[in-house]
Amino acid sequence: MTFLSATLNRVKPSPTIAVTTKAAELKAAGRDIIALGAGEPDFDTPEHIQKAGQQAISEGKTRYTAVDGVPELKEAICAKFQRDNDLSYETAQVTVGTGGKQVLYNAFMATLNAGDEVIIPAPYWVSYPDMVLLAGGTPVIVEATLENSFKITAEQLRNAITPQTKWFLFNSPSNPTGAGYSWDELKALTDILVENPHVWIITDDMYEHLAFGNFKFCTPAQVEPRLYERSLTVNGVSKAYAMTGWRIGYAAGPEELIKAMRKVQSQSTSNPSSIGQYAALEALNGPQDFLADNAKLFQRRRDLVVDALNGCPGISCPRPEGAFYVYPSIAGCIGKTSASGVKIETDEDFATALLEETGVAVVFGAAFGVSPNFRVSYATSDAQLTEACARIKVFCEGLS
Q: What is residue 1's predicted lDDT score, i.e. its pLDDT?
């Protein structure tokens, strides 16, 4: 008889965290490591947001707050949704959590029962299926293909829906692929959801402001107003505002759902950091011009990495619409042997050998549900990216 909960047997540790930890350990041991596993910007939180956090401390705003956010922040979130997404919410329809991850988790814990299904397009962020499993639900994985730019079709969504489907979980631009759905592509999906009124939609819009070129971000409740009453629109300040460590995510949706999520949070973490909340308030209400500048910086890095990886034997890398990830295929490397004698039978073999032989840390594709691929986070300097891609090319050229 084991002491640990059987629930833990349904989930696995986060592979992205494992890769980041392994890279840090090797670096601490003196290895020359280039870590391309972490999903966070490489620059500091903007100064005006830092100062807002410091001011909150100096003003004594360091005590417990309302369970899911101070009123001022909820008002700013409502204004953000109106300004950026043409979505109108009252503060009672808003919740603030310790990062977008907690907001998603709260939603699943508040709604899922045994037998309930959650449709998740793959490649997916590694935590999605495990959060569903922890909440007692069943992930239903719908695989998008490289040929379709890692975006699922309306027909795939229609075929995945059953009477047990409770949620469709949607992420655009995507982690890990950077794929972004256009208005028309998203409208095709929302048309299917309109036909199935028992299915709710939860959208992870964390990379909203990292959209490149002519691609225009849109969110499902904006594209199809008929889904407003069964949509939970999730966002946060982590990626766009370089505030990963501040741990502030938020969502808006039907008031009954928000109340249920608040109940879950009241018996887990209670309020998110008070200091983080006031910094997030400044992030949403303060200057926004730097967002476009950051997007241009990441677009340049995307092009650098895509062009370099497509010059590597055995690798095919699509050019995504947003976020700061690429998800190249290594189908041409499978079955070969590395310079040090490692047989590359899976993308995990590839990533492990790449780290050991070149010091470049990436996350293997099986962690995201589609193989054989790997994820590169290009949220680091041009110099590091150039060197990492050069090492990857040498590694691929050494395969035989």
A: 56
3-state DSSP of 165-233 = EEEEEEECCCCCCCCCCCHHHHHHHHHHHHCCCCCEEEEECCCCCCECCCCCCCCHHHHCHHHHHHEEE
- Extract the tokens encoding 198: 């028992």
Tell me the pLDDT band of 20, cut-offs 50, 70 and 90.
Answer: confident
Tell me the pLDDT tens digit for each residue of 102-120. 999 999 999 999 999 999 9
Residue the block writes with tokens 């010091």: 359
Distance CA 334, CA 302 (A): 25
Domain with CATH 3.90.1150.10 in the chain: 6-44+290-397
At 275-325, the pLDDT tens digits run: 999 999 999 999 999 999 999 999 999 999 999 999 999 999 999 999 999
* DSSP codes, 143-159: E--GGGTT---HHHHHH
* CA 236/CA 243 separation, integer angstroms: 9
114/13 Cα distance (integer angstroms): 22
Fold of 63-285: Aspartate Aminotransferase; domain 2 (3.40.640)
* pLDDT attached to residue 23: 81
CA distance 43 to 178: 20
Angle, CA 389 vertex, CA 387 and CA 392 arms, to 5°: 115
Q: How far is Cα 273 from Cα 8, in angstroms, rounded to an integer? A: 27
Return the higher-pLDDT residue of 116 and 6.
116
CATH for 6-44+290-397 is 3.90.1150.10
Global confidence as pTM? 0.95
Q: Are 328 and 360 in contact (CB under 8 A)?
A: no
